[in-house]
Amino acid sequence: SCRDYPLPALCSGVVVVDMLFAVTSLSPNAPPSSSSSSSSSDDDDENDDEENKGKKKTKLTFIKKKNLSRRISHINLMRRAQSLGDLLLTTTTNNTKKNKKKKKKNEQISYQTLAIVILSSLLIFSLLVIKQQNKNRKIRDIDRKLHHTISALATRAQWSLEEVSNGEKTKWWKKYNHPQQYDSSQNLPLVLLDEYGLPTLQQQCERKVEWPTVAFMTSSFLCESFLDVLPKTLRVHTFPLNTRAQMKYNSLRKLPTFNRGYDVEDYLVKWLSDGPFSINRNNRVKTLTEKTEIAYLLPIQPYLDRVSSFPFTDGRESSESGLKSAVQYAKKVNPSLWKQSKGRRVIVSVHDFGTELATKIFPDDDENDIDDIYDTSASSSAMLSPVSFSSSSSSTSSSLINTTHFIVSNSEIGVENAPFDAQKDVAVIPSLSFYLPREAVSRGLVDLSHFLRNEEEYASVGLELPKLEAERNIRLMFRGNNRGPLREKVFRYLIENGSPEDSIETTGVASPQAYMSLMEHSKYCLHVRGTRVMSPRLIELMLFGCVPVIVADAYELPLAWFLDWTKFSIRVPESEYENIHAYVEKANWRELHSNLGRVISFFVYHKDKPIIGDAFYATSLALLNKLEQRASTPTTPPTNNNNNNRAKGEE
User: Fold this and answer.
1) How far apart are CA 407 and CA 426, in angstroms?
2) According to the model, what pLDDT value does residue 498 have?
3) CA atoms of 80 and 425, how far apart (whole Å)
């Protein structure tokens, strides 16, 4: 039975004690062996005296007591042994249970450890897979960017070849551009046509041309603003850039650009910093008056900063770094001028990021510094006139985005990450082409009947009468891509529900000749919001006399502050894209096309230098308008120690 016990040796000891107890309990009254021999000898000796019997009786009583005491001791010993055995047995049993629990717990811990090891291995493996996927994704992104770049360069090469081959054919205007009148104020000839064959603003004002302006704007007031107010009022001071930024921009300018819209950034920065309004040009500091509005240009070029990191990143960090570096350098070179410029700073940003780069920059975070807060509730009719503004010392008003006028192409209202404020920011005219305007005019696609009133006047400048509606056999046209959820919906619907009169393709831009031919033979051309609201195609299709159908709700259109776009375009709400054909059918194409010819000279830039009334001057007038809409504060000319400060900063 001891085999069932956990400790067999202890069990055997307990059994031996039990056997000894059993033996002694069988004869509790038996004397030891020496007593038995004495008793037998006493029986044989009958002559023993009574004295010996008494001694034997006493001895026997003593032995009985001794045996009884020994038995009691054995019983106590057995009880103690039993108690000890039970205790040891209980302890052993408990230890066994604990060992089993411990073993089970150890097994659970082992399983958990194994599970952790397996999960860690899977996690490490997943991270390696993700890293490889990211690496592959980056490689694919770089490959995609390079593919787009090669395509863009090929397209640019095609356009350059087209311009070179047909450039001589479109210089007809020089033979007919013999001015007969002079500007008495400047003793300069009043040029009839510009380099593209479009009428100049001075000549249009002389002939009292009426433009499709907004309700509160008149053509005479517009002429006065361009010819008199703007040249006398606006001045631009340019903050210096550090040597490294100048070298970077000078190098990157030599690279071919990938989008005709992005070239506008470099053009505007160039002519704002060293153009007709430059404050340091021809010592114009002396000509400042109380009415002078000074703009302080920070001549960064975010698009070129973006190109510097191509194709490895999207360029956001590089553009943000370029902006922060320019701000820090301007503050370092002339801290007082930087503080003075608050509310009048200007940044040109003609790329996808727009104003987003400035949302996290706080260059004027000073409790004692009060910033100008632009009144977003001010009426848009208060153009070229000062309005009241409130002041605040909150940290949000110290943000660069709140103290700077942005000239941006991504003029989309209501975008949180790249906010556009129509009360202080200017929407860019997003197309810089020195070939397309000349080509459009030479093909007779611009209706100049508002300026050249009969066939003789057309012939006098070497132009043919504009092509009529019958020669445009395509009702609705689009060429481009379908990037963006809105474009996908709109073009899918138009392709599925179109007619033979339409020409909708989203496989990319056609060759230059095919693209120009499509615009030439189309009545209406689509401009649908894609990944951004602007596109150079909007201006290009207007040049070719194709009435734009605009599907982009939040787009603040260029020059919308003085031109009424509803009079030379169709605007369709994004939610009503299925009714595009209905909008087109109800429109008066001839009237819209005629008004396009009236306004198109405001939307072109000039190669040699800007001329009054073109896109550069229109943008500058819009900037002056925004400066006039700020709080009236005294304007102090920049100090003459600017060069010394610049030298210190470069050191």
Assistant:
1) 5
2) 79
3) 103
